[in-house]
Structures are given as C-alpha cells and as structure tokens.
Amino acid sequence: MKLTILGCYSATPRTFTNPTSQVLDISNHLFLIDCAEGTQVELRRNKVRFSKIEHIFISHLHGDHYFGLIGLISTFRLLKRDKPLTIYGPKGIKEIITLQLKLSNSWTDYPLYFKELTSTESEVLFEDDKVVVSTIPLQHRIYCNGFLFREKLGERKLLINKVEEFKIDKAYYKSIKKGKDIKLDNGTIISNKLLTEDPSPPKSYAYCSDTRYDEEKINLIKGVTALYHESTFLESHKHLCHITGHSSAEEAALIAKKAEVGFLILGHYSTRYDNIEKFREEALKIFDRVGIADDGKFFEF
Amino acid sequence: MKLTILGCYSATPRTFTNPTSQVLDISNHLFLIDCAEGTQVELRRNKVRFSKIEHIFISHLHGDHYFGLIGLISTFRLLKRDKPLTIYGPKGIKEIITLQLKLSNSWTDYPLYFKELTSTESEVLFEDDKVVVSTIPLQHRIYCNGFLFREKLGERKLLINKVEEFKIDKAYYKSIKKGKDIKLDNGTIISNKLLTEDPSPPKSYAYCSDTRYDEEKINLIKGVTALYHESTFLESHKHLCHITGHSSAEEAALIAKKAEVGFLILGHYSTRYDNIEKFREEALKIFDRVGIADDGKFFEF
Do A13 and B105 touch (CB under 8 A)? Predict the structure, then answer.
C-alpha cells in the first residue's frame, strides 16, 4: 500500500498548503479519498497517473473535502476518459455534480455513477477479489464517514524449489496457490503444506476525518496497519474540539492506542498553527508510532 | 486601472497554469472577473487584498470560469467577512451556490446577493458615482456575457495656484470642482474656466471571453482603453473556432482593429500550445498594440 497525501490541512486552500485529499495505491487500485479544491493540480504535481482512478470516496460535504470534485470530473471529460468513474459520498453529492454538468451542458462521455450514503452503520461500498472498502461512521457537525480499506488474504506462496523437486506440471500451480493438495502420476498425494507457505498478512488502512473523539469506531478499525486520524487542534485549543466536531492530537493518539493500530498518521491541521511537528510531540505522549501527514508526503506500509 | 491576470488558460488547471480569472482595480473597487478553480490561491499568491472584493462577475457556466467561486464564498465566511458580496452571472449560478451552502450547513454570515442574467441585450449591472459596469453579450456554446467597465468623467481639476491667487475659501473647492463659477465678496464673478482644467478622460476596459468571432459587439466596445479578447486558437487550428465557440488570435485582433481600441490583451489560450508568444505574433499582423496575458502578469492603463 502506498498512501500519497495531496492535502492535509483544514478549512481553506493557501499558497503552500492544501485542504484534504489523498490517494491510496492498493492491490492495483488507485482510490482517491476526498477531493478538495486544487486536488487535480496536486495529482499532477505528485505525478499520480490519475486517469487510473476509478473510485472516489467523499467523507462529507464540507468544502475542504470535496470542492475539487466537479473540476476533476470535468477534467476527465476533457481528457477523453472512457473508463467508468464511481463517486461514493453523502446524499446530495449527485445533485451538486449533475446540476453543474447540466448547466454547463457538459455531460461526461464516460459512465459516471454515484453511490449516495445515508447509513449511520458501517456498510461495504466496494469489493473485488483483492480488496474490500467499507464506511466508518464518524461523529462530525454534518453527516460524515471515514473509509476502511482491507486487503483480502492473498493466495498461498508457491515454493518453487519444492514444486520443481516433485516435477509438478505448471498447469497445477494455480490450484496449488489456492491451497489444493496434488496427486502425482504414481498416485502419491503431496500435501499443499509441503509446496507453499502462508501468504503475506493482508494490510489495512483506515481514514478517519473529520470526527470528534469517539470510541464507537474502535471496533471497526481494530488492529489496522495504518490509521489516518484527524487532529485539527493542539492541546491549547482542546476546548474547541467538541463544538467543532474535531479532535486533538492526543485524542487521535488515544484512539490509535485503544484500537491497537500499527501506525498512526495525523492530519487535518488547523491553519492557525505554523509548526505541525507539535502535533506529533503531543500524540507521542499517548502512542509511540506516530507519523505526521504533509502535502506531497507519502507513506508505504 | 490595474488589471491583474490570475489565470488566462482555457480548459483545465495545470501545475503551472490556471484557467480564467482576473481582478480589476478601478476607482476604489476591486472587481473579480470569472473565478476558476484555484482563484483564491492565486489571489493570495498575487497579494491581492481579496476581502476588498465586493462584486464578482461570472461570464458563463463552463467550469474553467467559475469552479473556484464556491470555495471563495466559503473562504470569505471562514475569514469572518461581514461586507456584502454580489455575484453577477448566468441564471443557475444561485442554485449551484446555495445548494452547496445548504448541504454543508454553512450559510454565509455576510449578505450574499445574486443578480442572475438572462438577457441577450447589454444591461447595466452596477453603477456608482465613479464607474458603471455593463454586460457585453457574447456568442459562445452556452449563454455567455463579457463585461464592460467604464469610469465616469471625473470632477474638474482644481488649479491650486489660481484659487489661492483669488483667495477663495476652501469651503468652495467642492463646488468649483463640480464646475461652478465663484462670486467673490466684492461681487466679481470668476469663471470656472480660470480655476480648473478638464478632468482626465475616463478609461474603460472590456472583457470578452469566451466568444466566437462576432462583430455585433463592436459598437459596445468602440474605443475602449483596453480590450481583453479571448484567442483560444492559433491560425493552425482556426477550423476549430466556430464549432467550439472560440476565436483565433487574428480574429481577436480584427475585432480590436474594427473597434478602434487603445490596446488589445490576448488570453484564454488552448493548453495544447507551449509558446504563447505566437499569439502575439499572429495578432500583430492585423493590429499593432497587442499584449499577451499570462498568469501573475498585470497591466496598468
């Protein structure tokens, strides 16, 4: 998995910082998560092959998480896209986009699908043989979801020296990787355990922005490889968290600790702060595996 | 008048070029003309005091002319604006903006007014004692207006040495500047002509983007100080002009020549071209006072 941060500040775009968007490269998918104003330029700047994006997940309808969506959809049209694109986001997103396409008389030439969300329970949005994406209901000022990306357990790994030793025909490799035993021409049965080893443990990524401190989501994100959790405020402004529906760095770390995640990534910083390193310092008091997001930075896990 | 080009390319934002937006500083107003994605960042980058903007003119509802509007409106709210803001643009612009404000539950705290346009005749949009702004109906693929900004004739200029010579009380200066004669205490009448000189001739700026070649607008823009006229294509792609509703550099120059304008500014270049200097070269074959817009460039006239 490779997570590229296109923008990780709250509120407004500024000359050198962008509001929220990130792209997750996982199991041959490029998933775009949130799409603030400027996202398409950041995709170019970070040399992401953004025509490959087929699924866009919008957490909520505050502008710092989706104002770049209509522009990206339009740019795909101008770039002569033909692949389908699916938008997952709160009810209303379809009306916002289609109203603008209608008024500009610029319908897309490619199939554009919407899956509008209303549930306050976690639900599966996308699934194929490699990955499953589901919602993480979040507590914010308006209806909001995080997103959980889970790799599925892969095929067993073939031990090449072993299959060659038993002179097994390559035609059987596919079924061996699926865990099947093999019967040789002489009738001997070779146990799959002799021919393969366990697949890599599947990885997972949880995106939680925007949200106030809320332990209800802990079960959903328990043990994920990496958790992005918003930390809009430092301790000095902790009193603003509840009313604005945001979290402090310490609160994010507390969720990470209770959910026993592998690694915590902080972001969605209030633009009032100059030094984002302080977010890590405050989180480290609670949890010891903390990274700080910054525009253009990427995380591999 | 000072015209700052925030973006002057067509179609999509790219890493180093922006779609259309410009800001006109005239008679103590900052008028924003079109507002593509990224405009608020370009306002910051160009150090425009954008809280001073009270009027935004949107030519048409293609995204490269207005996708940054909702973001700017939202940023004004976050910056605690209290001054009114008026948006002038095609019918539908109000629904686009208010739908998004409603769904984000983020109504502005400042008064936000819309004047929606439907007329295909020129109409006055704004007027005060210094300036009048009216539409220039344009021929594009969808309903589109250019905008004409005309300074009004200013007050007569006081000849300080003369009014002092006649020992005229300062209380009369205001009426002298308005053109009144003065009666001295001894009964002598001093003609205004002795005390003042003509005001500077009023300046004017016409913004014409997007439009195909169309001579109907020439009467409206006759003799303006500066004309911004779109030139999406070079001669090599002239065959695309009519069907896309755009103009070539030569066509823009021909309009400038027939309208006898003071100065032509070219812009709205197709992103297929690397060297925008060629637009000037082609226009210079027809008209000899040609400037080329570029992002971050400004023109004073």
Answer: no
Which two structure tokens, joined as six digits, stand for B291? 């400037």
- Between chains, do A67 and B78 touch, taking CB under 8 Å as contact? no
Residue A232: both structure tokens together: 């809009």
Domain end residue (candidates: A197, A225, A249) = A197
Same domain, A149 and A165: no
Residue B149 sits in the same domain as residue B169 = no
The verdict on a CB contact (< 8 Å) between B78 and A12 is yes
Q: Are residues B41 and B165 in the same domain?
A: no
B212 and B192: one domain?
Answer: no
CB distance B206 to B146 below 8 Å: yes
Q: What is the pTM of this model?
A: 0.93
SS3 of B37-67: the string is CCHHHHHHHCCCCHHHCCEEECCCCCHHHCC
**Residue of B240, B106, B74 whose CA lies nearest to A140:** B106
A55: pLDDT strictly greater than 90: yes
Q: Does B103 touch chain A (CB under 8 A)?
A: yes
Do A185 and A278 sit in the same domain of this protein?
no
Q: By the 8 A CB rule, do A176 and A192 touch?
A: yes
Q: CA A31: distance to chain centroid?
A: 7
**Final residue before a domain boundary, out of B197, B214, B229:** B197
Q: Are residues A178 and A296 in the same domain?
A: no
User: For residue B185, what are the domain limits?
Assistant: 157-197
CA atoms within a 13 Å half-sphere pointing along the CA-CB vector of B132: 10
Any idea what the CATH number is for the domain that residue A48 is in?
A: 3.60.15.10
Whether B107 and B161 map to the same domain: the answer is: no
Tens-place pLDDT, residues A265-275: 999 999 999 99
Q: Does B70 touch chain A (CB under 8 A)?
A: yes
Token pair listed for B46:
């160009």
Closest-CA distance, A219 to chain B, in angstroms, reads: 28
pLDDT tens profile B163-222: 999 999 999 999 999 999 999 889 999 999 999 999 999 999 999 999 999 999 999 999
Residue among A39, A67, A101, A144 with most chain B CBs within 10 A, to mutate: A67
**Structural domains of chain A, count:** 2
Buried b (16+ CB within 10 A) or exposed e, A76-85: bbeeebeeeb
**What is the DSSP secondary structure assignment for residue A24, as one 8-state letter?**
E
Measured CA to CA, the distance from residue A77 to residue A107 in angstroms comes to 8
B78 contacts in chain A (CB < 8 Å): 11-12
Residues of B in contact with A67 (CB under 8 A): 37, 70-71, 74
Looking at the complex, report in whole angstroms how far the Cα of residue A279 sits from the nearest Cα belonging to chain B: 23
Q: Are residues A183 and A280 in the same domain?
A: no
In chain A, the N- to C-terminal Cα span, in Å, equals: 5
Distance from C-alpha of A42 to C-alpha of A63, rounded to nearest angstrom: 17
